[in-house]
C-alpha cells in the first residue's frame, strides 16, 4: 500500500517537474510579450509568425482588450501594450510610456433594407447620428429619401445595432458620430461603451453582423475586415469634402494620407471625416505602447525590431487580412519617435 | 453518536475511533468552507462596489441612466430587466414544468417514463452558450418573422401606458425581453419539472389511494388532495427555478438585446444584471468607478438571488414540518 502511494507521489512530482520545465522552455522561446486590443490581434499574430520564420524573436500576443493592454503595460508585465484608442498625453507622461500607431483599420456601416441594394444607400454622418439617437426612425424618412432619390425606400422601422461589449470599434464609431452629429454628441457622446438611446446590442462584430442580417431594416457598424470577409452590404457615407464614398482600401489610404501626422500629439492623428475624393470618413489607427524607462531595454528593442520588420515586410499580410499599412512617411515619423527612447543616454533606435 | 460496545468492530477499535474523529473534522471543514467562501464573496463584492454605493447612494438602485461616458450609473434598468425576464420565464415554464411532472408521475405509460425523464434532464445538460447561440441564430429570427408580429396584432387592444409601456407593440427585432424569457423558460424547465416530480412523488400514496377510493377523477385527486398536501414544496420548486433564471448570463447576453434602458414594451431590447457585468467586465480597469459599479451590481444580484433562495427554503421547510 505504502509503496504504491509513494510511487504515485514521486510520479506526480516527476510530472509537475516535467511540466515546469516545459513551461520554462516555452517562456524562453517567446521573446516578445504583448497584450491588449482585440482588433489588431490577427495582424499582430500573423506578423509575429512571419517575423519568427524570418529569424526574428517570437511573439506572444494576448488579445485581452484595449483596457487590459494599457493596464498591463503600466504594470510592466508585458513588453508592449496595444490600445485601439490613443492614451491621453498626461497619462502617457505619468506612466512613462511612448505611444505610436502600428496599423490602420476602418469601420463600415452595414444595412439590411429589403428590396434595396445597401451599397447604393447614401447617408451623411449627421443623419447617421440622428438614426443612432432615435430621431430618424423609418427608412422612408424624408431626410433619407432626399439623399436617395434614386432608391425606393420602404416604410419599415430602422433597427440600429451596436456592440454590446466594450469595444475599440465602438470608440471609433462614436468618436466619428460625435464629431459630425451635434445631437449624437449631446445625447450619447463617445467611448468604448456608451449609453445608446435606441436599438439593440449584440456581442462582437459577428453579433452585430448577424443582428443586421436577421432584422429587416437593420443597420450596424463593423470592422471593414469583417464586412469584407462576410460579403456584407456597406452603405456610402459623405466625407470631409462632402463627397459620398463607398468603403475601399484606397479610400482608407486616402484618409490616412490627409491626416496631420506631423502636428499630432503623441502620434494620435485623427483620420475621421477627412477631405478627399475617395477618403472614407471612419478610419483610425490602432496604437502600441512601450515603456520610456524599460527595466530591460533589450526587450523594448525587440518590440521595435519586430514592428520595424513588419512595416517593411508586412504589407502582403495586411492586404490579405484587410488592414491598412501606415503610409511610408508616417512609418518614418514613428521611427523618429523611437529614437527618443534612450538607455543611459544612448538612443535605443536605430538598433544595432 | 456513541456506538454501543456490542456493535463495535472487534479489531482496530482505537484506530476506528481516531478515523471517526478525523472524518468528522473533515466533514465540518467541508461545511465551514462553504460558509467562508460564501461570506467572503459577499464581503468582497460589497467592498469592491462600495465606491459605487458611496458615489450614488440609493440613486444607484433607483437611477434609470446608465452612462459610461458621463460616469452616471443607475442600476434600475438592469434590475428591471433581470426581474422581468426571470418572472416571465417562470410564468412560461411553471405550467409546462408542472404538466411534465404530473404526466410523469400519474398518467405517463410506464415504458415512456424513463426516456421522457431523461429527455427533460438532458435539457439541463445543454451548456448555456449553446442555448444563447441557438436563441440568437434560430429563435430570434423566428420570433421576428412570425411570433412578434402575431403578438402585436393579437394584443393590440391592451391599453398602453402612454410614453412608458406599450406591451406588445414594438418593431419585431427578434431579440428582447420576450425572447430572453423564452430561452430562460426552456433552461429552467428541467429544474422545475424534476423538483415538482419529486414533490409529487413524495405525496403519501395513502392519500391518493383514498381520493381514488372515494371515486375522485385524476383531476380531482390532483387539485383536491395532492396539491393541497404539497403546496409549499411546489412553490419551493418554482423559486429554485427563479433563482437560476436571475443569474443566467451567457444565454441572455445573446438574446436580450443588451440595451441598458428602461424597456418600453415586452418586446423591447433590455439588459440583465448578469449580462451587463459580462459585457462590461473585460474592459473595466481596476480602481475605476466602472469596475466598482459592476461589483456593486454583482452584490445586488447576490442579495436578490439569496433572498429568492431563502424564500424557497422557507416554503420547502414549512411543508416538511406540517
Total helical segments of chain B? 11
Taken as a percent bin, the fraction of beta residues of chain B is under 5%
Overall shape of chain B: it is globular
User: What is the CA-CA span between the terminal residues of chain B?
Assistant: 28 Å
Overall mean pLDDT of chain B:
88
Low-confidence stretches of chain A: 1-28
According to CATH, the fold-level topology of chain B is: MetI-like fold
Q: What is the class of the largest domain in chain A in the CATH system?
A: Alpha Beta
Shape of chain A: elongated
Order of helices and strands of chain A: HEHEHEHEEHHEHHEHEHEEHEHHHEE
The CATH class name of chain B reads Mainly Alpha
What is the structure about, briefly put?
The complex is a heterodimer of chains A (352) and B (322). Chain A is of the alpha/beta class.
Give the SSE map.
The complex is a heterodimer of chains A (352) and B (322).
Chain A: H1 2-29, E1 32-36, H2 41-53, E2 59-62, H3 66-74, E3 80-83, H4 89-94, E4 97-112, E5 122-123, H5 125-133, H6 142-147, E6 159-163, H7 168-180, H8 182-187, E7 200-202, H9 204-214, E8 218-223, H10 224-229, E9 236-238, E10 244-245, H11 249-258, E11 283-291, H12 297-313, H13 315-320, H14 328-338, E12 342-343, E13 346-347
Parallel strand pairs in A: 1-2, 1-3, 5-9, 6-7, 6-8
Antiparallel strand pairs in A: 3-11, 4-8, 4-11, 9-10, 12-13
Helix pairs in contact in A: 5-7
Chain B: H1 13-56, H2 59-62, E1 66-67, E2 72-73, H3 76-107, H4 110-125, H5 128-154, H6 177-201, H7 205-213, H8 218-247, H9 250-255, H10 273-280, H11 289-321
Helix pairs in contact in B: 1-11, 3-6, 3-8, 4-6, 5-6, 6-8, 7-8, 8-11, 10-11
Amino acid at each position: 500500500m505504502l509503496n504504491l502511494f509513494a510511487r504515485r507521489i514521486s510520479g506526480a512530482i516527476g510530472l509537475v517537474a516535467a511540466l515546469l520545465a516545459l513551461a520554462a522552455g516555452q517562456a524562453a522561446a517567446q521573446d516578445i510579450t504583448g497584450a491588449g486590443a482585440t482588433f489588431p490581434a490577427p495582424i499582430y499574430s500573423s506578423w509575429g509568425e512571419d517575423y519568427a520564420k524570418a529569424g526574428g524573436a517570437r511573439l506572444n500576443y494576448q488579445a485581452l482588450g484595449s483596457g487590459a493592454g494599457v493596464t498591463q503595460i503600466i504594470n510592466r508585465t508585458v513588453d508592449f501594450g496595444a490600445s485601439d484608442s490613443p492614451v491621453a498625453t498626461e497619462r502617457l507622461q505619468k506612466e512613462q510610456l511612448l505611444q505610436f500607431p502600428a496599423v490602420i483599420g476602418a469601420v463600415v456601416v452595414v444595412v439590411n433594407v429589403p428590396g434595396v441594394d445597401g451599397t447604393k444607400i447614401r447617408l451623411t454622418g449627421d443623419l447617421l447620428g440622428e438614426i443612432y439617437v432615435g430621431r430618424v426612425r423609418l427608412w422612408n424618412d424624408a431626410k433619407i429619401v432626399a439623399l436617395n432619390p434614386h432608391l425606393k425606400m420602404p416604410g419599415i422601422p430602422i433597427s440600429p445595432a451596436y456592440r454590446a461589449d466594450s469595444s475599440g470599434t465602438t470608440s471609433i464609431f462614436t468618436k466619428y458620430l460625435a464629431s459630425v452629429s451635434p445631437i449624437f454628441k449631446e445625447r450619447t457622446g463617445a467611448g468604448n461603451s456608451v449609453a445608446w438611446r435606441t436599438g439593440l446590442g449584440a456581442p462582437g462584430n459577428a453579433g452585430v453582423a448577424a443582428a443586421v442580417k436577421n432584422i429587416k431594416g437593420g443597420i450596424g457598424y463593423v470592422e471593414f475586415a469583417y464586412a469584407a470577409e462576410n460579403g456584407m452590404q456597406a452603405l456610402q457615407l459623405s466625407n470631409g469634402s462632402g463627397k459620398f464614398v463607398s468603403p475601399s482600401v484606397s479610400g482608407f489610404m486616402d484618409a490616412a494620407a490627409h491626416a496631420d501626422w506631423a502636428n499630432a500629439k503623441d502620434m494620435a492623428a485623427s483620420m475621421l471625416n477627412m477631405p478627399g475624393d475617395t477618403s472614407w470618413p471612419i478610419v483610425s489607427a490602432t496604437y502600441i505602447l512601450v515603456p520610456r524607462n524599460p527595466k530591460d531595454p533589450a526587450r523594448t528593442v525587440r518590440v521595435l525590431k519586430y514592428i520595424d520588420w513588419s512595416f517593411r515586410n508586412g504589407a502582403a499580410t495586411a492586404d490579405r487580412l484587410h488592414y491598412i499599412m501606415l503610409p511610408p512617411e508616417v512609418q518614418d515619423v514613428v521611427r523618429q519617435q523611437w529614437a527618443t527612447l534612450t538607455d543611459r543616454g544612448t538612443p535605443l533606435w536605430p538598433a544595432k | 453518536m456513541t456506538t454501543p460496545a456490542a456493535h463495535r468492530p472487534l479489531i482496530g477499535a482505537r484506530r476506528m475511533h481516531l478515523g471517526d474523529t478525523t472524518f468528522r473534522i473533515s466533514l465540518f471543514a467541508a461545511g465551514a468552507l462553504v460558509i467562508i467562501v460564501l461570506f467572503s464573496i459577499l464581503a468582497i463584492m460589497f467592498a469592491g462596489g462600495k465606491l459605487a454605493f458611496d458615489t450614488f447612494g440609493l440613486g444607484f438602485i433607483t437611477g434609470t441612466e446608465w452612462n459610461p461616458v458621463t460616469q452616471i450609473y443607475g442600476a434600475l434598468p438592469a434590475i428591471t430587466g433581470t426581474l422581468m425576464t426571470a418572472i416571465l420565464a417562470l410564468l412560461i415554464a411553471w405550467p409546462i414544468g408542472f404538466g411534465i411532472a404530473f404526466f410523469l408521475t400519474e398518467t405517463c405509460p410506464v415504458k415512456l417514463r424513463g426516456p421522457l425523464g431523461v429527455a427533460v434532464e438532458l435539457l439541463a445538460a445543454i451548456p448555456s452558450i449553446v442555448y444563447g447561440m441557438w436563441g440568437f441564430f434560430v429563435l430570434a429570427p423566428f420570433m421576428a418573422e412570425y411570433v412578434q408580429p402575431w403578438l402585436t396584432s393579437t394584443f393590440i387592444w391592451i391599453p398602453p401606458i402612454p410614453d412608458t409601456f406599450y406591451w406588445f407593440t414594438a418593431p419585431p427585432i427578434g431579440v428582447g425581453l420576450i425572447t430572453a424569457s423564452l430561452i430562460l423558460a426552456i433552461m429552467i424547465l428541467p429544474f422545475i419539472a424534476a423538483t415538482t416530480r419529486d414533490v409529487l412523488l413524495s405525496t403519501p400514496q395513502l392519500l391518493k389511494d383514498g381520493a381514488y377510493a372515494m371515486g375522485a377523477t385524476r383531476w380531482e385527486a390532483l387539485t383536491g388532495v395532492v396539491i393541497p398536501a404539497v403546496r409549499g414544496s411546489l412553490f419551493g420548486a418554482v423559486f429554485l427555478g427563479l433563482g437560476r433564471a436571475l443569474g443566467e448570463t451567457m444565454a441572455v447576453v445573446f438574446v436580450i438585446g443588451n440595451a441598458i434602458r428602461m424597456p418600453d414594451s415586452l418586446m423591447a431590447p433590455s439588459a440583465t444584471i448578469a449580462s451587463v457585468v459580462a459585457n462590461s467586465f473585460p474592459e473595466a480597469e481596476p480602481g475605476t468607478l466602472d469596475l466598482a459599479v459592476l461589483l456593486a451590481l454583482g452584490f445586488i444580484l447576490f442579495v436578490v438571488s439569496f433572498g429568492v433562495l431563502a424564500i424557497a427554503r422557507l416554503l420547502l421547510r414549512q411543508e416538511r414540518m406540517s
